[in-house]
């Protein structure tokens, strides 16, 4: 860490709005002889210098902080400029230390106004405590997220320290890119079914009498199927929002997971898949499972759909008892595997991320991301690997999850 010290005697009078200390009053009249009587003078607390406070009080070096830290004294000159601040602003610490805050960090808002002039940290209302984080610009157009805190010796007193926090905008840009990708994916996935719905309904309304009953039924079935696709996509978007914000609710009740697997296999066979393509093995001794039945259907539906759509050969679903947690809690393990080409080793780390697609056979690339979020909301885990016959193998483990009021 590079730390400088500044004193009022060294400060230039041009420091931004830094108040000057007034001289102490000199008593009038003769000075009495003999020892001076003891006086109890109440000293005003002065904030300690930041380096001593960090290193000595908390054992923290400012250079260990992940965000940029800049501290100016009561004269407006910089006394602390950590390594992250130098990296974010591209200003060497040796150059910044001792300089006025507005010269070392000539920040501007997005309209080109000088930020230090607008905020005036050493002047203005004495009730102000700082500035909230906002996006500002350094010379050359470098963007930086800046927030400030004003440290006063007493409420309403002069500012003794200005503590500035700096953060880069890379994380925000990544989030914005992710949102843009999500919007583009949603727009693409909605365009096709909406076009179909609009086309068939417009045709039926305009030429109803010209179509036979069978033709009308076919068109209406197509509209119904496309409306179902739109509904599922909207449900996925809502799930992503809840997972990202930590608001995914799990309504636990007893679940027969073996029966749930049977229902999903039956749905695929009635939809045209051969019954011989599925092999279900349920091991004895399954513990009781408390889970959200709708969420369990969502997990199984996504995993079986992936195995059928992207895999080949027999799809094996294995349900077995297991130990779900490190403290020995019982749980249920479900493995779904196929006999297809599997997932390349270099892609396995990205399987549960947004927009990952194992092939070009359609899909939004959001299903497995949601599956992972739902499993983890139940307190479980999910992994991906290569199955015994070379295909993809997904394994998730759910603890019993008995509600606390039943324990």
From TrEMBL:
CDD domains: HATPase, HisKA, PAS. Residues 1-60, 322-343 are annotated as: Disordered. It comes from Streptomyces roseicoloratus. Gene3D superfamilies: 1.10.287.130, Histidine kinase-like ATPase, C-terminal domain (3.30.565.10), PAS domain (3.30.450.20). Its main location: membrane. It comes from the Bacteria. The lineage of its organism: Bacteria, Bacillati, Actinomycetota, Actinomycetes, Kitasatosporales. InterPro entries: HATPase_C_sf, HATPase_dom, His_kinase_dom, HisK_dim/P_dom, HisK_dim/P_sf, PAS, PAS-like_dom_sf, PAS_4. Residues 22-35 have a biased composition (Pro residues). GO terms for molecular function: ATP binding. The keyword Transferase applies. It holds the Pfam family PAS_4. Residues 8-21 have a biased composition (Low complexity). Its EC number is 2.7.13.3. This is histidine kinase. It is found in: Cell membrane. Keywords: ATP-binding, Kinase, Nucleotide-binding, Phosphoprotein, Transferase, Two-component regulatory system. SUPFAM superfamilies: ATPase domain of HSP90 chaperone/DNA topoisomerase II/histidine kinase, Homodimeric domain of signal transducing histidine kinase, PYP-like sensor domain (PAS domain). PROSITE patterns: HIS_KIN. It catalyses: ATP + protein L-histidine = ADP + protein N-phospho-L-histidine. Residues 185-402 form the Histidine kinase domain.
């Amino acid at each position: 860490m590079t730390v400088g010290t500044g004193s009022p005697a060294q400060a230039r009078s041009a420091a931004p709005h830094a108040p000057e200390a007034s001289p102490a009053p000199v008593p009038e009249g003769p000075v009495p002889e003999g020892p001076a009587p003891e006086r109890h003078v109440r000293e005003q607390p002065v904030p300690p210098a930041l380096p001593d406070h960090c290193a000595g009080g908390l054992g923290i070096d400012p250079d260990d902080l992940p965000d940029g830290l800049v501290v100016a004294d009561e004269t407006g000159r910089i006394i602390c400029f950590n390594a992250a601040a130098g990296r974010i602003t591209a200003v060497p610490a040796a150059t910044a230390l001792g300089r006025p805050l507005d010269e070392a960090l000539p920040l501007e808002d997005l309209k080109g106004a000088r930020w230090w002039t607008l905020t005036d940290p050493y002047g203005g209302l004495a009730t102000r405590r700082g500035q909230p984080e906002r996006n500002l610009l350094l010379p050359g157009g470098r963007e930086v997220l800046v927030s400030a805190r004003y440290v006063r010796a007493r409420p309403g007193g002069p500012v003794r320290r200005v503590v500035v926090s700096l953060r880069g905008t890379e994380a925000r840009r990544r989030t914005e890119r992710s949102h843009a990708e999500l919007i583009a994916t949603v727009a693409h996935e909605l365009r096709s079914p909406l076009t179909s719905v609009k086309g068939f309904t417009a045709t039926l309304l305009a030429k109803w009498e010209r179509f036979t009953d069978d033709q009308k039924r076919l068109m209406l079935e197509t509209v119904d199927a496309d409306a179902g696709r739109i509904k599922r996509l909207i449900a996925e978007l809502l799930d992503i929002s809840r997972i990202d914000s930590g608001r995914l609710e799990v309504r636990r009740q007893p679940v027969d997971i073996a029966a749930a697997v049977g229902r999903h296999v039956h749905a695929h066979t009635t939809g045209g898949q051969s019954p011989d393509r599925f092999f279900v093995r349920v091991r004895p001794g399954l513990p009781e499972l408390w889970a959200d039945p709708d969420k369990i259907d969502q997990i199984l539906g996504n995993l079986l759909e992936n195995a059928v759509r992207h895999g080949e050969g027999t799809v094996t679903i294995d349900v077995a008892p297991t130990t779900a947690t490190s403290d020995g809690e019982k749980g249920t393990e479900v493995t779904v595997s196929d006999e297809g080409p599997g997932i390349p080793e270099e892609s396995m780390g990205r399987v549960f991320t947004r927009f990952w697609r194992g092939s070009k056979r359609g899909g939004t690339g959001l299903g497995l991301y949601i599956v992972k979020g739902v499993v983890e909301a139940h307190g479980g885990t999910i992994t991906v690997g290569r199955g015994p016959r070379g295909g993809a193998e997904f394994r998730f483990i759910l603890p019993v999850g008995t509600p606390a009021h039943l324990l």
